[in-house]
Each structure stands twice: as C-alpha cells, then as structure tokens.
Amino acid sequence: MNLWLYKSLKQNPPACAGGVTSLPLVTLGILLLALPFSLSPELFQLGYFDQTLIGEGQLWRLISGHLSHTSTSHLGWDTLAFALAAGYLERHSKRLLLLSLLGGLITVNGLLLSPWSGVGSYAGLSGILFAPLFISLLIFARKQPSLNGWLPMLICMGKVIWEQFSGQALLSQSPWPPYPAAHLAGILGGISIVAFSLMLKTGNSIRTALFPQPSEV
Prior knowledge:
Layout: H1 2-9, H2 25-39, H3 41-47, E1 49-50, H4 51-55, H5 61-67, H6 72-92, H7 94-113, E2 121-122, H8 130-143, H9 151-166, H10 181-200, H11 204-210
Antiparallel strand pairs: 1-2
Helix pairs in contact: 1-6, 2-3, 2-6, 6-7, 6-8, 7-8, 7-10, 8-10
C-alpha cells in the first residue's frame, strides 16, 4: 500500500486539482512537531491524551496527544504512513488535507472522550492519519484506468478489519495496548469530509481533487 502511495507522490497533480509542486509543508510541519513529543520523556508526559487531565482543563492534549508516541517503532511507522498519505493528499489539495485532519481530530477525539471508548489514555498519529489516508486512497483509485487502482484501498480496509478482530497492531510495536477503534474513527472522519465537501459544494478544486479523471495519472 505504501509503495503505491510513494510512486504516486512523485507525480505532480494537475493544477486544477489544487496541487502544488513545492514541498508538502503542512505534512512536514506536523511530522517535525511529533518528534519532540515522542522522543522527549518530559514532553511526552506533558502531551499524551489523558481523558482525566483533559477534563481538568489541559485541552492542548486534544492535539498533542496525536503527536506523542510511546516508542520509536510506534513513531517510525506512524510518521511513515502519515508522510505518504498526507504528503500525497497535500500535493493534490492543501485545503482538503487540512479538512481531513480536522475531520480526523473530531471523530477520533469524539470517540476517545466518549464514555464507551474504554480507554483513558491514548497516543499516536495512527488514528487521525486514517482520514487523509482514506481520501488519498480514494483519489488514487479514481485516477487509475482499471479496477486495480482499488487494490490499495482493499488492503487498507483488510488491515483495519483484521486489527479490529485480533486486537493487535499489524506493524508497530508499543508498550501501550493497541486501540484499533481509533483507526475506524479516522476513516469515518475521512468519509465525513468527502460527504460534506460534496454536499456543501466547498469548491471546484476539492471536487476536482476528489474526482480526478483517469487520464490525470
């Protein structure tokens, strides 16, 4: 799945899709912010998502919790997946990337703050990154002239389903128990942004990015 995104990331999207040929600065900025919150024990303690502390007023954890990681393996796999998915999407539409991240934050945080979440603490990009990942895979699939373009999406969905039933993370290793439900919440955030963008007609650039023609590969 990452290989398909990597190959597509190197291709410049059409100008009408809102793409840019410069570096994906939003993606790089988020990745840089994740480093200190993940590599510094002091900043990790200050940043990870804690439902009780957020209830006491430490609202920054609603954002910093997604930048904090519990191990180098956790950090490495999350940042790799985020770089490919968010970088690909940013080169098509920076606005769509920002909307997807907002959607992911709302749905994942909403789940974590709900009484049925079953967890009090959480850390990592893996939840919210599924919002831009879902949209990136949707764009990639629609750009392909054959049904093979949907294979990365099927692999991604298969991974998420397997993690839900197994209760295990497929790649990254973390001393904290995995929480696959956050991945589903991230996907829901991506789906919501696609739906709202189409219903509210938020702009031709977003619609063009979401529904490219196969010839735009």
